[in-house]
Amino acid sequence: MLPSTILEAQDLSKSFAGPPLFTQLSFRLEKGLLAVSGCNGSGKTTLLKILASLARPETGAVRVLRDGRELSGHERRLAVGWAGPDLAFYEDFTAAENLTFFRSAAGLAARAGDIERRLAEVALAGPALSRRVGEFSTGMRQRLRLAFAALFDPPVLLLDEPTLGLDVEGQTAADRLVAAHRDRGAVIVASNAQRDFPAPDLRIELGRNR
């Protein structure tokens, strides 16, 4: 039986210049899909970065709990997968070399067959495997971001604008990733495209009170 992993946000608040993006935002998610929507500038990307420990809230805290024990450090980093528009890769590496590097840096096995399978799941295969990321189109980079988010098989998946720049094949791959993961863990998707979160289990709309 897989351990229970819960992402818990407690009273999160964040502001830059002007009114706060959000205040006293709380939720708890173990399994299923949480949709985060809101107008441009409402704080969707900022919220996901806070959940991924890439940014700090002004108040409140984010905890990742596994069977009731709070994770920290390396354990926590492996438990939360994130992909956003500003996620960058080594331009002179191929997609496979990038993923291999990141798995090895995390102390995990990086078998060639496993890496190729992960890339095939986001429709990066064939000639794309031998191309440097610096030669990738916008859509190909987005597919690689999705593969990176799932690279450590995390129980929590955070996807910011997951279908941005994707063609139909890429959108289908993103849909499969979300559908497969929400059945076994927590998925949080930030987007204004309703197709990105079909029948969400929870929904947060930012910017309503600004």
- Cα distance, first to last residue? 44 Å
CATH superfamily: P-loop containing nucleotide triphosphate hydrolases
- What is the level 1 CATH name? Alpha Beta
What is the CATH third-level topology name?
A: Rossmann fold
The total beta strand count reads 9
Overall pLDDT score:
94
Strand/helix succession: EEEHEEHEHHHEHEE
- Tell me the radius of gyration: 17 Å
Strand residue content: 25-35%
Report low-confidence residues grouped into runs of 5 or more. none
The helical percent reads 25-40%
What features would you describe in this structure?
- The mean pLDDT is 94.
- It contains 6 helices and 9 strands, in the order βββαββαβαααβαββ.
- It has a single domain, classed as 3-Layer(aba) Sandwich (Rossmann fold), CATH 3.40.50.300.
- The relative contact order is 0.22.
- It has 210 residues and is of the alpha/beta class.
- The strands form 2 sheets. It has a 5-stranded parallel beta sheet with strand order 6-7-8-3-9, sandwiched between helices.
- The protein is 30% helix and 26% strand.
What descriptors fit this protein?
single chain; 210 residues; alpha/beta; Rossmann fold; five-stranded parallel sheet; globular
